[in-house]
Amino acid sequence: MKRPGFTLIEIIITVAITGILSVGMFKAFEAITLRSEKAKILSTLSIDSQSALDQISILLYNRAPMSVSGYNLGDAARTSLDSSTNKKIIEWLGLASESYETGDYSSFVDMNRSDYASKTLYTPDTNVAAIQTTQTAKWGSFSWNNMALIFSGTFDEGNSATYPISMSTNNQIVITGTPATIYEKYNLIDSAYAVARGADIDQTASCITALGLSASALDNTLFLFYDYRPWKTPTESFCADSANRIGKVSILATNINAFRAQTINGTIRLSLDVNRTVRGGNPVRLSKQKVVF
User: Fold this and answer.
1) What is the distance between the alpha carbons of residues 168 and 148, in angstroms, rounded to a whole number?
2) What is the pTM of this model?
3) Which listed residue, 93, 117, 140, 235, has the most CB atoms within 10 A of its CB?
4) What integer is the mean pLDDT of 97-114?
């Protein structure tokens, strides 16, 4: 009579089949987990990059006309953006009007009542006390040297030059410098902004080292620089280690492989490339664009 049980060969075959199935199930589970992790990272990168582009576009929307320029670290001069510009730093002037109320200043020059010989512009409904109060609240102190004027020109396509100003009485702005053309519309400015990746700036500057970022993270971090005034004498620049540095910095996004800005058909096109490595060395890449009018 045959005893119930399994032969050694049957046991070996069963163990082998179980092992093969286990390996297959492990590989399938690993693939599902990896896809889930990639989807999560992709969603995070999409939200972070979109948030960065939205913040830049809001600040650019309140820019002074014709003030957007691009340059690389070490360039002697800024140049206007165009479709072929390959500049890694974008800079523009912000309108002071975003901090003012209606009636603080009019943004228009009465051409008939202005004195061009003394470079005194008559600007109706402009209040010296209101400007001083707002600037003091915004910056903690007040100095006319901290403000400048930029002409908007026809259809906001005027001269991009900035002119330091002063006011002794209401409705009169005195400009320093000699504009080739005086336009009826102007804007007051009190701050400049710049955006750049860590790989494209001076990483030894104190405003960068104070953030305490690791060397590996620094290159692919996108920074926003603000609260500096390039029209002053001596010239202020963002995050430069000098006695006159005043610029502040904040982090817009991380894992940024590339940042580009171009002017196309009168609009500014911003582009971000993001890249993050997940478990096993598999990269997740994403590109985003936003158009600013």
Assistant:
1) 15
2) 0.83
3) 93
4) 83
